[in-house]
Amino acid sequence: MTGKGVVVSILFAIIFYAAALILVVGLGVKIAQYARTPAPLKIPTTPAPLTKGGVAFRLAREAVVFESLFKGNKPLWIFAILFHFGLAVVLIRHGRYIQGEIGPLVALVQPLAIPAGLAMLVGLLCLLGRRLVIERIRYITGPSDILMLALLLGITVTGMFMTKHIHTDVVMVKAFFTGLLSFQLRPLPDDPLLMAHLLLVAALMIVFPFSKLLHAPGLFFSPTRNQTDTPREHRHLCDWAARLEGKGN
Amino acid sequence: MAAPFDTPELGNVDERRIPALKPGAMAESKPYVAAAAHQEPLGFPGVLEDGWEAKAIGHMGELLSKYRSLQVFMDICVKCGACTDKCHYFLGTADPKNMPVARQDLFRSVYRRYFTPMGKIAPSLVGARDLTKDVLDEWYNYFHQCSQCRRCSVFCPYGIDTAEISMAARDIMDRIGQGQKYCNEIIGKVHKIGNNLGLPAPALLDTLEGLEEDIEADTGVAVKLPVDVQGAEVLLVTPSADFFAEPHILGLIGYAKVFHAAGVSWTLSTKASEAGNFGMFIGNYEQMRKISLRIREAAQELGVKRIIFGECGHAWRVAYSFLNTLAGPWDFLDPRYPVPQHILEFTNDLISRKGIKLDKSGNDGMVLTVHDSCNVARGARMGDKPGGQFTIPRAVIQASVPKFVDMHPDTICEKTFCCGGGGGLLTDELIELRVKGSAPRMEALKDVVEREGVTHMAAMCAICKAQFTKILPYFGHDREMVVSVHQLVSNAIVLGDND
Ligand code: SF4
Ligand code: SF4
């Protein structure tokens, strides 16, 4: 390793440790907050499932096929599906940079790399386009919404460039990240595109717990979606409401 | 009083027109602010006092820690806009702040400023705002342009329910002395007199006696409307409008005939002479609980075995979804029946067991459609299967009338549009909002009137009935076009000893 290479590698190691820490702790704090906050009343949007199994199925439909969004807005649903399914494939595929042995799932999606990246790109561009073109959506769009899309586009484009055109030394990248996992410093390839990609990813990890990306864990805590419709059968009483009864008023 | 305004032009329901934005179109629309006389009996400050900002933020923090819905909904909106064209008030007024997400953002902008790191560090980046008097005024106006109908929550990918946010905002405003007159005055009447209309017990007894005479003159059968009868089987809790005006009162006569024909003993209560619970509209758990406990007390004092609710939308949401929480457990009632039951569950059950007989010719010449009330459709259920709140009222109507047709599928069942007057907005000074907000429903109604010859629209909610009675004439319909579901039952039911 050259002197500069060592410095860069150390810097990226620090950035990724910090980003991972912020992501995990930040998300942990938010999830704990959601879990801790009581839901005093039964407010599922009805018709709602009557059983826990039914609720799990409802949440699964929301998380995987975006059921409500499908009811709400078909073009948006297509854009969202393109982006999220593309992202899912790409994320799985990135498993190869942190796994010693490449797992079967990662191997399975390997040939989908390019189509998945394209799906993300097209999805993101459409999402950005509607924010600029549709009057109602422009009205509700703030700077942070545009920045978030720009960040994701940056990650996608730099990533795709490396897959398609300017191949980076993936063996070294893998060595760097598996090294991080076992607390060993190994060199990163000296490649500006890769560095840009990694910096943007680190930024995404850092803003995750402080931004609307909280929709990912938040969906599962949404009382209109995660409650059973059983108020007459079972008395639902949270702690603070129970204390009111204790006061006897 | 409200300035003159144009009744919206109705389009074609199939086209699902989305209006171009008219910023500020409804900026001036607001209900009267509560006076000290309406605030103080509920334990709220009489007027906005110095230091309200800090108090409001303090209360916001408390609500965030007490309501998971509020905390989660504040964080997870992605501004996708799927909800933007779903609110009847936006569709009817074109004011962008009536788009559900924009309405939420009035609250979210303040949440971000005071409760999130991003809002503290970079407010303009994430649209965070200080809570100023201007912001408060905007809250007051636009959180009283939400009928808490939950239509937006059906289409939001995360189920974000703007109603929850409107309720929280109204609760905060109450606690700092900026309450709404209409709701708070009514809640005061419930506590003082027993019902929303402020109908005292003697007047109620009088009305019911007169009704008994009318029914007997009409049918020759002595159908009773019992009040405060010890040991009756059923306590009927119904909106006080049922004692007061048409078409509500015709529904009440229908309930009485059903009980009579089924031979089930029942009673009204002067203590619980109101099914409505405006505590929900103002987002106040304690008020909602206090109002609910009257029903528990009445049931215990009268020694009834079952509780049945009359036709009212938000009352049924509070009854079905919250009553067990607020005023349960109901272990002193007959465990064979759900607590509470809806009168439509009761009647439907009798129809399907052939416990009552209906003769459709009693409604000859009528072609019916039904307006699903928002709170019944999206905040409650009837029967033992999801969606019973849609099938049961339809079954009862179809058993009572010669012809029934549904309105456009985008406007019924879980996708139903609010009547335009729900959520504590049924007050004269909001008439422009109410007329404009009813446009999506009126559009779908016009469609079935023209295509199917619909003559009447059945409703199962006191607010819907009152709202439609008032606004139907704006759209060229007769005010009597809206009918109670049990009015249809009443016209069709065959009373045992009446041939
Ligand atoms: S649909 Fe839900 S997530 Fe999308 S903008 Fe509306 S409230 Fe936000
Ligand atoms: S709850 Fe109903 S009135 Fe309120 S914003 Fe949503 S759709 Fe509009």
TrEMBL record, chain A:
Domain NarG-like: 72-216
Entry membrane topology: Multi-pass membrane protein
Gene Ontology MF: a single term: nitrate reductase activity
Organism the protein comes from: Paramagnetospirillum marisnigri
Protein name: Nitrate reductase
Domain of life (superkingdom): Bacteria
Alphabetical UniProt keywords: Cell membrane, Electron transport, Membrane, Oxidoreductase, Transmembrane, Transmembrane helix, Transport
Residue ranges of the TM segments: 6-29, 76-92, 112-134, 146-163, 193-211
GO biological process: anaerobic electron transport chain
Record-level GO cellular component terms: plasma membrane
Subcellular localization, as worded in the UniProt entry: Cell membrane
One Pfam assignment: Nitrate_red_gam
InterPro entries xrefs: Heme-iron_electron_transfer, NarG-like_domain, NarG-like_sf
Main location per the UniProt record: membrane
Keyword Metal-binding: no
TrEMBL record, chain B:
Secretion signal, residue range per the UniProt entry: none
Pfam family, one: Fer4_8
Domain of life where this protein originates: Bacteria
Domain 4Fe-4S ferredoxin-type, first and last residues per copy: 68-97
Family annotation (PROSITE patterns): 4FE4S_FER_1, 4FE4S_FER_2
Protein name (Swiss-Prot/TrEMBL): Reductase
Keywords: 4Fe-4S, Electron transport, Iron, Iron-sulfur, Metal-binding, Transport
NCBIfam families: DsrK
Entry-linked InterPro entries: 4Fe4S_Fe-S-bd, 4Fe4S_Fe_S_CS, Helical_ferredxn
Any one Gene Ontology molecular-function term assigned to this protein's record: metal ion binding
